[in-house]
Automatic annotation (TrEMBL):
Residue span(s) of domain NadR/Ttd14 AAA: 2-113
One Pfam entry name: AAA_28
Annotated region (Disordered), positions in chain: 176-197
Keywords tagged on the record: ATP-binding, Nucleotide-binding
Residue ranges, compositional bias (Low complexity): 185-197
Organism (species): Micromonospora harpali
MF (Gene Ontology): ATP binding
Protein name (database record): ATP-binding protein
Superkingdom, natural source: Bacteria
Length: 197
């Protein structure tokens, strides 16, 4: 199974990715493109520039399109970088080829989107660049629902907007086999339609 987690910075994606990987037999966490590119010698600005976000977007697409690993939890997706680009004034639909993006998202069994909530702002540590964080969260939600590139319309999407301590259980519940309950694409919302938990 291949599951990916999207969300703005400081929202608990890595924590959820590690917890999911620990509960899904044989799964590994695939680090976010920022760290993978940094290991390759890429030097990011602070805050990252549009060029930096495009580099992470391209890396994220390559990672998802790679058939290996087949059992993985991805920390971030191309959706994140499209949201950051939108939050900094770029037009997301001009950043990547739609068919390439569609092929990347087609490799996923579930796209989990963690969003800012009143509880997350109260409980989670304060994040850097709060304005950018908030704008990216809003851009991500707009992109997720509008899907201007028709890239994730066939990918089951789970929006995590409920209690923080329920995120792992909510995600695992969606991933259950059909015989054990709703799975990807089997809820009333249908495949590719976000449903909040």
């Amino acid at each position: 199974m291949r599951v990916a987690i999207s969300g703005t910075h400081g929202i608990g994606k890595t924590t959820l990715a590690e917890a999911l990987s620990a509960r899904l037999p044989g799964h590994v966490v695939v680090d976010e493109p920022y760290y993978l590119l940094e290991e390759q010698g890429y030097e990011f600005g602070f805050p990252p520039s549009s060029e930096d976000y495009r580099a992470m977007l391209a890396c994220s697409v390559r990672i998802l399109r790679s058939p290996s690993p087949s059992r993985a939890v991805f920390d971030r997706t191309p959706l994140d970088y499209l949201a950051y680009l939108a939050a900094t004034g770029a037009d997301p639909s001009e950043q990547v080829d739609a068919s390439t993006l569609r092929l990347a998202f087609a490799t996923l069994d579930l796209l989990v989107v963690a969003v800012i909530t009143p509880e997350s702002e109260r409980v989670l540590p304060a994040a850097e660049l709060p304005g950018l964080r908030s704008r990216t969260n809003d851009a991500l939600l707009e992109l997720m629902y509008d899907d201007p590139l028709d890239a994730w319309q066939d990918t089951p999407v789970l929006e995590l907007s409920g209690p923080l301590d329920n995120r792992l259980a909510a995600t695992l519940d969606i991933l259950k086999p059909e015989s054990a309950g709703p799975g990807p694409g089997t809820t009333e919302a249908g495949a590719g339609r976000p449903w909040p938990v």
